[in-house]
């Protein structure tokens, strides 16, 4: 199934909302208010995907779901997968790492699926020269060390990672990105052939596990605990960026209807603005966005009829809808 996205859907949604409000002289919604309501509405729809997917799976388990064109699992799963990411976690200090966020991985994590570790360190060293897209260490023996394409290289000075494309010589590695901009940066190389899933444990059990000879974590069976946005890994040798990779569902980007203001004060849609962001949900959710935004508008301008209209339209399109 191909998930269709409509260009400038945010402008189409806003025009529909304004048309309904203006038809009955209910008032005007500013661009800032619209963007706020749009963000909340998209988030509601996004969260519904998870609960709806759970309902579909439960229906399949009792053999009450459809197949072929009536298979509802596939479109929901494919929509969710468009928000799925895999990123290396950023190191905070020691064996602690940061949850995915806008400042570390570019996206905030809505739900962690799994954490995989590359616990085997092949080499720690220092770059001795700068060549674009390469790691150069005149003192190294990359071929003898058994480094192969696919291994992970981390610039330990900047915490930026790259992948080995080829081993050019004992002293030169070709990388898939340019992460060494100056000589003298420390680096770590981690084996891609040893990848293990790290098990999450609650904080109260961490001490017990660490003090037991039977359950003490090893590089074959690492563990991590989560406190706030900080993940702590054991054994403590898991301590460099490039060793910890998270697969997670990210939050959708906040939509933003951008505009230019004419001399008369009327905002005109302008998608060329640097902070423009369209909705990320599929085009078939456009009617839901309109009805949900209308409900927020009705509350904002204190018009009960607008709220009721939005609820009625949502109920008509989705019989399972229940007002919150």
Oligomeric grouping of the chains: single chain
What ranges have pLDDT less than 50 throughout 5 or more consecutive residues? none
Sheet bearing the most strands, described? 8 strands, mixed
- Assign a percent range to the helix content: 25-40%
Could you give the order of the helices and strands?
Answer: HHHEEEEEEEEEEEHEEEEEHH
Task: Count the DSSP helices.
Answer: 6
Number of β-strand runs: 16
The average pLDDT score comes to 88
Distance between the termini: 32 Å
Strand content: 15-25%
Read across the widest sheet, the strand sequence of neighbours is 1-14-4-11-12-13-3-2
Structural class: alpha+beta
Radius of gyration: 25 Å
**Morphology call:** globular
Q: Topology, please?
A:
Blueprint: H1 9-23, H2 31-61, H3 73-81, E1 84-88, E2 91-93, E3 96-98, E4 109-117, E5 121-126, E6 134-136, E7 152-155, E8 160-167, E9 172-175, E10 186-190, E11 196-200, H4 203-210, E12 223-227, E13 230-234, E14 244-250, E15 259-261, E16 267-269, H5 286-300, H6 304-317
Parallel strand pairs: 11-12
Antiparallel strand pairs: 1-14, 2-3, 3-13, 4-11, 4-14, 5-10, 6-9, 7-8, 7-10, 8-9, 12-13, 15-16
């Amino acid at each position: 199934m191909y998930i269709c996205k409509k260009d400038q859907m945010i402008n189409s949604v806003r025009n529909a909302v304004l048309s309904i409000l203006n038809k009955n002289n209910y008032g005007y919604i500013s661009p800032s208010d619209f963007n706020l309501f749009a963000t909340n509405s998209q988030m509601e729809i996004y969260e519904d995907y998870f609960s709806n997917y759970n309902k579909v799976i439960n229906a399949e388990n009792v053999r009450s779901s459809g197949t072929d064109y009536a298979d509802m699992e596939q479109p929901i799963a494919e929509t969710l997968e468009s928000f799925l990411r895999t990123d290396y976690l950023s190191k905070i200090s020691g064996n602690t790492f940061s949850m995915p966020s806008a400042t570390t991985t570019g996206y905030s994590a809505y739900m962690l699926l799994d954490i995989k570790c590359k616990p085997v360190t092949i080499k720690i060293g220092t770059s001795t020269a700068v060549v674009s897209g390469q790691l150069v260490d005149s003192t190294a023996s990359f071929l003898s060390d058994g480094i192969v394409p696919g291994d992970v290289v981390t610039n330990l000075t900047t915490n930026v990672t790259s992948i080995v494309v080829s081993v050019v010589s004992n002293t030169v590695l070709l990388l898939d990105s340019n992460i060494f901009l100056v000589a003298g940066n420390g680096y770590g190389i981690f084996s891609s052939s040893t990848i293990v899933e790290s098990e999450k444990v609650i904080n109260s059990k961490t001490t017990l596990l660490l003090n037991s000879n039977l359950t003490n974590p090893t590089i074959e069976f690492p563990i991590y605990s989560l406190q706030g946005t900080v993940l702590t890994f054991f054994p403590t040798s898991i301590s460099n960026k490039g060793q910890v990779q998270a697969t997670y569902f990210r939050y959708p980007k906040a939509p933003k209807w951008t505009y230019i203001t004419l001399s008369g004060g009327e905002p005109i849609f302008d998608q060329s603005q640097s902070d423009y962001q369209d909705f990320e949900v599929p085009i078939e959710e456009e009617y839901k966005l309109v009805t949900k935004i209308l409900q927020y508008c009705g509350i904002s301008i204190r018009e009960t009829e607008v709220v009721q209209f939005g609820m009625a339209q949502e109920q008509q399109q989705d019989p399972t809808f229940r007002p919150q």
